[in-house]
Structure formats: C-alpha cells, structure tokens
Amino acid sequence: MTALHLAAKHGHIDVMNGLKEFIPFRTASEKTGLTALHVAAHYGKADFVREMLTIVSACVKSESPISSTYGSQWSSEAGMTPLHFAAQSGHEGLVRILLNCPGVQTDAPTSVTVLMSCSHPSSVMSPLSSLAFIFATRSIIAFTGA
C-alpha cells in the first residue's frame, strides 16, 4: 500500500492533504488494484471519503492487481466501486453518502452487484434489508432532489 492508502485505512485526512501535491489520487495500488477511496470506504472512514470525493469521482472502479503476490486475494474485486466496499462492510452512513454522489449507479454493470456486496459474510446488513435500504435511499434522493 502507498502512504495515501495507509492514510485512508486509518482516516488520516491531514496526511491526505499533505500528499495532494505529490500523489495522483486516482492511482490504484499494484498489489490490490484499489484506490485510497476504496480503502477508506471499506474501513468506514466517512470524513476521509467526504474529503476524497472533492477530488476523485465516487464512480472510480477497482483494477485487477498487477502484483501476483496479492492477485488471488483481490482479483474478484476488480470493477468494484467504493459503494460496493461500503455496502460490503456494512457502513450504512457511507452508502448514503456515496449514493448521493453524482453519477453513482446501483445497477452499473460489474461482476459483483451492490446487493451481492451487502450479502457478503462480513456485511452487517442482510440481503433483504440491504435491498430495501438501497431502493428506499434512491427513492428519497429522487423524491427530494438531493
């Protein structure tokens, strides 16, 4: 992981701000294929995610890992968005934040849907409650224009 990825994992916004001039924030880790935004979403670092969203699109997709060391662990994660990671980890607040971002689609074509992410064993949300949550949130956003 890069310094930015480690800052994302631990929610260190000050480190991120210090790296702005030196590191492109859309860069994915060669070992995992994930951007710092994916990492922050996975670990539930809402403030870090909000700050990153001022620089990086919420629609950025994970890449296939280049390094063979971690390739088998993360290869199924390629094409996933930060929304997938937030849902998979059960971070409802982050799911709401990411659903409110421009261009985010819950039905975007990937190998893993957001609903499948919610039913992952590490998720605290059941598939049914996840589906209800996603559709209810999308309906509220559409209704209020938020």
From TrEMBL:
The keyword Hydrolase does not apply. It comes from Aplysia californica (California sea hare). ANK repeats lie at residues 78-100. The keyword Repeat applies. This is Ankyrin-3. Pfam families: Ank (PF00023), Ank_2 (PF12796). Keywords: ANK repeat, Repeat. SUPFAM superfamilies: Ankyrin repeat (SSF48403).
